[in-house]
Amino acid sequence: MQYLVNGLIIGAVYAVIGVGFTLIFGIMQILNFAYGELFMIAAYLAYFGVTVFMLPLWLILILAMAVMFLIGFGIEKAVILPVRMKIPDWVVPVILVTLALQIILQNLALILEGGNFLGIPAYIMGSLRVGNFSVSYERLLMFGICVATLAGIWLLLRKTKLGLALQAVSQNRDAAILSGINTNTVYALCFGLSGLLISIPGVLMMPHLYAYPTVGQVPIMKAFAVTLFGGMGNVAGAIIGGFILGVAETLAAGYISALVKDGVAFAVMILILVFYPAGVGTLLTRRKLG
User: Fold this and answer.
1) pLDDT of 95-130, one tens digit each?
2) What is the CATH number of the domain that holds 266?
3) Which of 40, 34, 32 has the alpha carbon at shortest distance from 109?
4) Does a structural domain hold residue 102?
């Protein structure tokens, strides 16, 4: 029971990470290799927010979400858009640009902060005990925020004009253009929304990880596994995949060894690619961003 509870909590985090990653693929058909570095930036923001400015968690989270949205939006406008405007078949070149951006951001962090592992104490102390298992208040808060985020993104996609525009572009870009949707704006907002989403686990996971230049390799690996498991571009599948991966990792760490925990993500990717490359999300819906 303890392992299941812990798995669901970390699964909610993985689901948020996966949704932010799969949004960009579902709409633009690209893999954003710089996605993990946005997590890294959010982790540094959390570190400085706690150690330098001594801000409360809620304010750090709001500021990080705003900053990361602007960074994501700015990356698309300043780096991705010029490539898309100059190259008709821009998918592969844009993927290479995100790969270059990943390396640049890692080295920039290394220059500015060095290779030091920077950590912070827990945001909230104490734990809740029920029967034979216990869970820290911090993890409960993490779970609540991530679940609320997933509900919010689901409502945004289903009930707002922006969500309908995102779905329209993901399903048929040419038809969306003919209906008057500005795809350049949609792409920029998609990158901004992706940056906002990855900032949430970037801040919340900071007491459990460290801020260092290559910390983004951890979430990008999880994002790939969750996206493949759920189906490329499928939000519902990413949510389900995140929870399943979280539970699977926790059970593997508890019953086998903590050393194999991260290997579960690679195992999931291999199994899905071999036996069901379409992803489990296609069992729920055939539509992208469904």
Assistant:
1) 999 999 999 999 999 999 999 999 999 999 999 988
2) 1.10.3470
3) 40
4) yes
Say how many CA atoms lie within 13 Å of 167 toward its Cβ.
Answer: 17
Residue 41: CA atoms inside 13 Å, Cβ hemisphere, count? Answer: 27
Instruction: Read off the pTM.
Output: 0.94
Contacts of 110 (CB under 8 A, 6+ apart): 213
Tell which residue, 191, 144, 198, 152, has the closest CA to residue 14. Answer: 198
Q: How many domains does the chain have?
A: 1
To the nearest 10 degrees (0 to 180), the angle between helices 35-51 and 217-230 is 130
* Residue range(s) defining the domain that contains residue 249: 2-114+142-283
Looking up tokens 């930036």 gives: 41
Which residues does 255 contact at the CB level (< 8 Å), separation at least 6?
A: 3
Give Dmax over CA atoms of the chain in angstroms.
62
Whether the CB-CB separation of 127 and 137 falls below 8 Å is answered with yes
Q: Reduced to 3 states, what is the DSSP secondary structure of residue 40?
A: helix
Q: Are 136 and 204 in contact (CB under 8 A)?
A: no
